[in-house]
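Hi R.,

Here's the chain you asked about this morning:
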Amino acid sequence: MQALAVAALIGWGCLMGATEVVESLRTGVLNNRKGPDILAAEQPVFYWVLIGFYTAATLTAAGLALLVLAIAVRDLIGARGPDR
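And here is the predicted structure, written out as tokens:
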């Protein structure tokens, strides 16, 4: 059950990250919470490097969430077997 909760938490973070990336691609502005925003028109190389990094991080976290979810489901199904 704990692995299932961890998978849900990671999945929620992936959803929030993916929403940020899609919104940034739609508007062309990368919202920087601690400093000035990064505009695609003003700093295209920096913008695209950060978007690529955020996308890769979100996809990696989504893969981790799926792996933890698969382990949790396997353990839950295996826990109901005759040997446990």
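One quick note: The radius of gyration is 18 Å.

Cheers,
M.
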